[in-house]
Amino acid sequence: MMAQYLEIKAAHEGALLFYRMGDFYEMFFDDAVAAAEALDIALTKRGKHDGKDIPMCGVPVHAAEGYLLTLIRKGFRVAVCEQMESPAEAKKRGYKAVVKRDVVRLVTPGTLTEDSLLEARRHNYLAAFAEVRDNSAFAWVDISTGAFHVMEIAQVRLGPELARLAPSELIVSEAKERELAQLVSDFGIALTGLSRSAFDSTGTEKRICDLFAIATLDAFGTFNRAEVAAMGALIAYLEITQKGKLPLLRPPQKESAARTVQIDTATRRNLELTHGVGGGRAGSLLALMDRTCTAGGARLLERRISSPSRVRDVITARLDAVSFGFDNMRLARDMRETLRKVPDLDRALSRLSLDRGGPRDLAAIRNGLAEAERLAGRLQSEDLPDLLANATGGLGRHGQLISLLDEALVAEPPLLARDGGFIAPGYNTELDEARKLRDEGRGVIAGMQQKFVSDTGISSLKIKHNNVLGYFVETTATHAEKMMSPPLSETFIHRQTTANQVRFTTVELSDLETRILNAGNHALEIEKRLYERLKEAILDVAAEIGQTSSALAEIDLALSLSELASTENWVRPRVDDTRAFEITGGRHPVVERALSQQSGEPFIANDCDLSAEDDAGNIWLLTGPNMAGKSTFLRQNALIALMAQMGSFVPASSAHIGIVSQLFSRVGASDDLARGRSTFMVEMVETAAILNQADDRALVILDEIGRGTATYDGLSIAWATLEHLHDVNKCRALFATHYHEMTALAGKLDGVDNATVAVKEWEGEVIFLHEVRKGAADRSYGVQVAQLAGLPDSVIARARVVLDALEKGEREGGATQKTLIDDLPLFSATPVPRPPVQKSSKVEEQLAEIIPDELTPREALDLIYKLKEAAKG
Q: Which residues are listed for ATP binding in this entry (predicted)?
């Protein structure tokens, strides 16, 4: 056995080997040591190898999925080695024959299909990047849903695409593995290198054609050699990991970067589109907008948020679908109730195609298609917009399959086919008979006993069972002679004689015994056979089921966005090909929700107008104190543009958006210690990317450019950046800064306007109004914000002294830095004032003794008068 293990392990050096032994997957040697630590399970030993103990650990087969998930998340790959025959079959080849085993699947992050290993509401992409001469391409597939896409991109765009799709695993040529290792590691993606032959465009084309059973790729469109290489590499890797059992993939869809808004990695992070600041969904735009009822609808929503469209007709069609739901809210809510009953058709279909499914996947297909039929019937009488009409046309096509599955399956089938009991009674006569024997064996035996009593006239005759003889007929010695004489002796065959009893059998009883003993296995074999037939019936129409699933997701998303718009008071934006950007009463959707839930405070809405002429940009230069809401204002306008172009209503009173081609955000920053970058360096790298890429259709939001260096260095960089955006990029932009000197640019550059976030001072404190107004702030109120943050009073007092001196020196124009320092004594020499000890007043003493819940209204009124008198005293 160990020789077999070592041979199989040698063929899968890069993976832990789950070696099936009965009801356990066992691991040995270094695999056992690594797995025991990763899974926190006991490490034992079994036998010796080269004179040393062999480390061993194992996990139960029935619980393997949970252990697999842990290992995958910790960066392992797992080769699952199954027994290909039973021990009884092995013994037929010889007493010491080893059970045949082989690896049936290589489990990697990008090739998961089980529900327990996946997030239902997110795609799990496996991606590949290929270069062929001067061209490069990026392809990705989700084998759990069948989605298959490819696009031509330059290597410099690989990072943004990885940020957009967040694949679990990326396949590259071994020659590119080291070059791309750092980039891929930054995204937490598993990197897999394949040989160059896997990317050979000639061989890969044949691989793709064989998979889809077509003669030429022209049936799917025109692909260059790099795109073919990337797609073919994916299929080659699936052949390796799935051991030739390829998943059910949809025809590849060619995407174009020109059809979607380009959003770089930093912008996705800054705007928290699909992940919040903590790394999970909480606090993200996706979490706020997700009111979908189906897993497919949720995955479609994430795709739309990650890839807003820049094609006006596409955007308009999506908005029309949302408007239909918004205008027909009662109908929309009825349909959403139906959608809530729709299982995940895509993943059930994928598991069935890979032989990893079970009876519940058959039931999921049945239930999902039945709900689709109901939706189709309900919508066919409606005057639908084009997108919903096209989707509805793909729903009601499966009446025959639904009837078959409904007739064949019980309402709630078990998880595994080997458990049996999923075929409905009455569907198959042979199965019903086998079940009757299995479940009613005693009754059948009792009936045969009554027949034998009637035939022999011996009322004491019994049919019994033991482990040696099996079933037998038993009677007393007194009646035995009768049964051994003709004509009964022709039926009853003598088996055994004891002191007081004689035992017989019959051909009929022996046959019944065999059938009873085999009935359970026979029933299970019949059910497995019927399972295969039902599975094939489903896979025969897999393409049509895939279309139904896509249609359900499209309807679900449109109706969920209409529900969201209705409950959150959002409006339909006007989206066109102009360079308009006019938002009235705009709000940040995530911040507004947080305020409502935490304090009940209303969100202060603000207007923004960045509409630009054809030959110029328009920039708002935003000043005002920290904590006043500048960053929120910047982000909300970027989000409103994104939401409009993904096809959603937006949080505003009105919105007119000229299509945005690129979205750039540089808001907030942190050190990148792994690459040796300071906060300022990260800021400059991100700013450089914007200035080098933004076109005249871009929307750019920048916050505090230059703050990470010396004052005049920072001011000069911010100044030059704003001029470049205005003169060269000519884009629409929001530029927040604390460098008030820059407000002078509004008078020099035609496309720059000053705006400020209003505040009010009262008794030395600053009150944030969160209102954006035209004009410039006179100062930043930094000391007041520091006081709100809780800095010690002595520090605040000292800061005011230093600030007054610095401002005075600047006004007078003659004070040098050295003079100011000489005039200001060292902080350490300044005594820290102790806060005075406060004596409690009479009012406070009386209040301390009061229990408000015990006061009547009259007593409370009397108390107020008493406290007023005490305050006068």
A: 624-631
Name the residue with tokens 């002294």: 801
The amino acid that residue 587 corresponds to is R
pTM greater than 0.90 (yes/no): no
C-alpha span between 869 and 276 (Å, rounded): 55
Question: From CA 357, how far away is CA 360, in angstroms rounded?
Answer: 8
Strands 501-505 and 470-476: antiparallel
pLDDT tens sequence across 3-44? 899 999 999 988 999 999 988 999 999 999 999 999 999 999
621 with 754: CB under 8 angstroms? Answer: yes
User: pLDDT tens digit string along 452-468?
Assistant: 999 889 998 999 988 78
Looking at residue 426, the DSSP 8-state letter turns out to be T
Lookup: tokens for 231 = 């797609």
* Relative orientation angle of helices 507-539 and 429-439, to the nearest 10 degrees: 130
Q: For residue 319, which of 67, 146, 575 has the smallest C-alpha distance?
A: 575
Return the higher-pLDDT residue of 727 and 848: 727
Cβ contact 18:12 at 8 Å: no
End-to-end CA distance of the chain: 98
State how far the Cα of 176 lies from the Cα of 198, in Å rounded to an integer: 13
Q: Are 99 and 87 in contact (CB under 8 A)?
A: yes
H-state helical runs in 151-258: 158-165, 174-186, 201-212, 225-241
Alpha-carbon distance 785 to 626, whole Å?
7
> Is 625 annotated as ligand-binding?
yes
Nearest CA-CA partner of 343 in 325, 365, 318, 327 = 365
Distance, CA of 873 to CA of 863 (rounded, Å)? 15
Residue whose pair of structure tokens reads 């899974």 in the numeric block: 39
Cβ distance 221 to 231 under 8 Å? no
Q: Is the pLDDT of residue 827 over 50?
A: no
Q: Choose among 193, 197, 18: nearest CA to 103.
A: 18
Rg (CA), the chain: 38
pLDDT digits (tens, 9 = 90+) for 131-190: 998 899 999 999 999 999 999 999 999 999 999 999 999 999 999 999 999 899 888 899
Say if residue 631 carries a ligand binding annotation. Answer: yes
Q: In Å, what is the CA distance from 556 to each residue of 244, 343, 564, 566, 595?
A: 35, 13, 12, 15, 28
Is 860 annotated to bind a ligand? Reply is: no
Contacts of 851 (CB under 8 A, 6+ apart): none
Two structure tokens written together for 567: 């409950």
**Would you state the structure tokens that stand for residue 79, as one six-digit string?**
């080769």
Q: Which two tokens stand for residue 281?
A: 């969904």
Give the burial class of 443: count Cβ atoms within 10 A of its Cβ; 0-12 exposed, 13-18 middle, 19 or more buried. exposed
Question: What burial class does residue 677 get, using C-beta atoms within 10 Å of its C-beta: 0-12 exposed, 13-18 middle, 19+ buried?
Answer: middle
- 627 annotated to bind ligand: yes
At 520 the pLDDT is 79
92 marked among binding-site residues: no
Of 464, 511, 507, 456, the C-alpha closest to 485 is 456
Closest CA to 644 of 323, 332, 309: 309
Angstrom distance (rounded) from CA 682 to CA 702: 14
Say what the pLDDT of residue 671 is: 47
φ and ψ at residue 53, rounded to 5 degrees: -60, 145
β-sheet bridge partners, residue 657: 575, 581
Torsion region of 50: left, alpha or beta (phi above 0 gives left; psi -120 to 50 gives alpha)? left
Residue with the bigger pLDDT between 816 and 486: it is 486
Q: Is 624 known as a binding-site position?
A: yes
Q: Is 529 helix (H, G, I), strand (E, B) or coil?
A: helix
Please say whether the beta carbons of 399 and 373 come within 8 A. yes
Residues 6+ apart with CB under 8 A from 679: 669, 670, 671, 708
Which helix (H) or strand (E) is 581 found in, with range?
strand 581-586
